[in-house]
Records
---
Amino acid sequence: MPSSYSELRAQLATLTTEAFRPELAEIDRLPTLDIARLMNGEDRAVPEAVERQLPAIAAAIDATAARMARGGRLIYMGAGTAGRLGVLDASECPPTFNTDPSQVVGLIAGGPTAMVKAVEGAEDSEELAVADLTALGLTADDTVVGVSASGRTPYAVGAVAHARARGALTIGLACNEDSALAAAAEHGIEVVTGPELLTGSTRLKAGTAQKLVLNMISTLTMIRLGKTYGNLMVDVRASNDKLQARSRRIVALATGAPDEQIETALAAADGEVKNAILMILADIDAPAAAARLTASGGHLRAALHPPTA
């Protein structure tokens, strides 16, 4: 840890995400449309930065899916914007993929209060990260993703170091090269998006890059776990009117069945989209569909073509 603010200031000066851009020193004097064009141009570089890390991202996803298939959890940990993005991604998995809320977890330094209000000093504590993981009951089947734009945030680095020491899979997502976070993790992902439009404001390009990568980690992991059939969300949880309608549309797209048959299948399957599709396509009843899906580990494509004895 830095022994003084001057030492920390020197550290920050070495980070790409903290770099000052003299050419933008009078940006506040430009017309709003010109600033918007500048910002839009900056954002275009983010997907290219992510693209350069796709092999590392894919390797991390395959490792994560293997752990989750054994019952492990996906745990995001970060502070500030990084932490909020992890909580956001985790909270969207239950309605999208019908996961249990405990399967994908987002932890932010300082706890739930930090989602809407800064908790001073929380990000500087490795001990807090260890305590949060201990409270969660970390196991070797879990995957811990530390997220930090700078790649030096003690909460994220401490989380990854602690998790790796206990045999969990670890991923370090940073936006600077040669980061302590990536070095601490088994899978380091460094999406270098460059200096921000506003000096050091990593909620901008760095935050966008983190959102894109977290989207990939959760979505592709769920695809690998059989939560989709093609590009259809067959494990969607129909918790509101929109999702109820989407469930019926998904069954229709997957089967081409008429509405009456779809309604009958969904009713027999207690609203489970995947089961209803299997019932229609394989022409089997609800118990048989449930049995096949259990045997295939929840993979609909495999359940449609079970191995012959």
---
Amino acid sequence: MISRIDLRGDALTEFPSGAALRALLPRADFDVAAALEKVRPICEDVHHRGDAALIDYAEKFDGVRLDQVRVPAAALTEALDGLDPAVRAALEESIRRARTVHREQRRSPHTTQVVPGGTVTEKWVPVERVGLYAPGGRSVYPSSVIMNAVPAQEAGVESMALASPPQADCGAFSGLPHPTILAACALLGIDEVYAVGGAQAVAMFAYGTETCAPANMVTGPGNIWVAAAKRYFTGRIGIDTEAGPTEIAVLADDTADPAHVASDLISQAEHDPLAAAVLVTDSVALADAVEKELAPQVAATKHVEDRIVPALSGRQSAIVLVDGLEEGLKVVDAYGAEHLEIQTGDAAAVAGRVKNAGAIFVGPWAPVSLGDYCAGSNHVLPTGGCACHSSGLSVQSFLRGIHIVDYSREALADVAHHVVTLAEAEDLPAHGAAVKARFDWKVPGQ
């Protein structure tokens, strides 16, 4: 069901660099560049036809003919009123824990006195308007509503709208986003919601339409078409990341419980047939035991043939054998997993040595599923190895740092000769002249 990659012996010695090692590791095919050409006409159609284009694409891609794209306020209230009490309690606890963590990420202005009379203050200003995207294809993710909305709210974003695909066969909520998505919005106080999915949702936020004002930033996971649309609009709007298929890597030794490891690999595989599940271990016995555990656990769950089996048997998933913990750390750092579990002896110390991961889950009692819902951490994380240079979604994602420079006459005079010297070294004499003019120095050419 899952392949093996043997990196024991001389394998890691022959491929010492990160890029060469990454090439040996499993990864899903996810060609955003190819998808970009397909989403371009969709995005430009939304630009020119606005809501009419959104309505046409809902019919084409979602099988629903909409009267309007904005969800009526009454539908949000109705969805919350009809929500299963247990689901409501779980969502409320997830929100509470996420707020607890993200509130601590707020940043305060800080002033540095560079010299007497010269200060630089950095203030943090939230993005004015954000478009949030919640997927609604194979699965419905109210948890993603929470993970996107809470950090934006804690950052102080004043205007927030959410888009999620309309559902074709959802009873009284047909033609609207899934009612659990709507209920999550109601719990979070998000009252501007649109029944729009895919690349067209990103285009709606980027360009604006008759109904929806343009946003400064778009965040939220989605399929390859959403990722491609984000790339298309990069520069016009801010984005969080081009999220690819989800992935888990587990670094484990012979102290790990194979039943736990197998269940965690399956938990990510059930997202999507392109989901990646990778075990890195120095224990052949554990590898054998995990493989033995996979078959009965897979047989006992849902989404077997359409998601889990293709994911576990695909090129993106594997058991990677290494000689020891040091080699295992080298492999997981090269892989840069979205989710990395450490199931080894002294797991906390090992986790402290990891350099590249979207989020790290320490020991047997912190599975990725906890982070997906109720750890308090954020589950919108970099994929495809992007953890080597990018972070997950946080309050910081929605803030802009602005420097305020305040110098007195004396403080400028003290450094003026350095400014003039550097301006002349760069052949930008007008830069120096702008300083000289303030002290009645002779400006060249006058």
---
Amino acid sequence: MTYDVNALRAQFPALAAGIAHFDGPGGTQTPTPVIEAIAGALRSPLSIRGAVAPGEINAERIVGDFRCAMADLLNADPAGIVFGRSATQLTYDLARTLAAQWTAGDEVIVSRLDHDANIRPWIQAAERVGAVVRWAEFDPATGELPPEAVGALLTPRTRLVAVTGASNLIGTRPDLPAIASLVHEAGALLHVDAVHLAAHAHVDVLDLGADFTVCSPYKFFGPHHGVLAADPALLATMRPDKLAPSSDAVPERFELGTLPYEALAGTTAAVDFIADLAPTRQGSRQDRLRAAYTAIETHENALRETAEAGLYALDGVKTYSRAANRTPTLLLTFRDHPAQNAYHHLATLDIHAPAGSFYALEASHHLGLDNTGGLRVGLSPYNNTEDVERLVAGVAEFVKG
């Protein structure tokens, strides 16, 4: 089998509208198997989890399948997979819980490259206990965040380092294993925001060296919620706020209220959908996920190179996505026009490439773009050459106008 983008596109009902979607970093479109899994869960008996009534058994199975699927996706322990309403919510909960163990003078490191969801929760948690926040700076000329930028800030008082797996604004993928090595040598913990990375590359939490990893299934064809992966033994040392009657077992102690079983069923289907993109159906689901992501990266990078060749040749277009290792995510500004105008112009052509800073405020400011950011072109596995050609033609029309 080869990567058949036309067969892939046929499984996304939303693509029948004829829109060329470059808004994947904000959330992908949803394939039919995921839609059917969500509907199937809601059509079946569902109750509070248990082992007696059919609804209880269905709910228990859905939760277990979800944990196993996300564990395969991230090479994690199913017992360390935590559901959350969003990656932001999970990070806030984690920051509050960890900060209860910090004291005044302890230190936390955040990066300018990150989405604010991996910055503000840590800053606010640090402020509440008098901890010091240190900033790892990326190079605005290259987009790179070298490991040394983090390593130079580490001290014996560092408690946690928060860094992105890939920038949702300019695509930069820092060298996480190298950063993790430095962080752990200093005796600190590493929290990785893999929300953008997990949409484009296989995330192996063991290879990355992350103590905590968050991602969002709606970035890779699934429903809207967040997932945290961590070592169950590490989670067992933490005492989050919880209701007295609720389970104190890991990972349930971190999950508040009844879980949305239909969303979890959809997430399992999304993981299986990705695994089915592997060139061969042989091997375990985890093996097929690795192979599928290799195929996805090859496809997306080829489209990215085509898009770059066309867009960068246009007069008055400036790009900020320059890191050697990056996702197929381009940020553009225009010499004579606001990026918002480009966004609106492209929308009239049924091309969706939004403009803004996309919650990466620190990165946008560091690039000299203030809060306005730029036009973000985010490729997804279902984009094809025709989409890219439409985009380049639309931007060319805009800059000439």
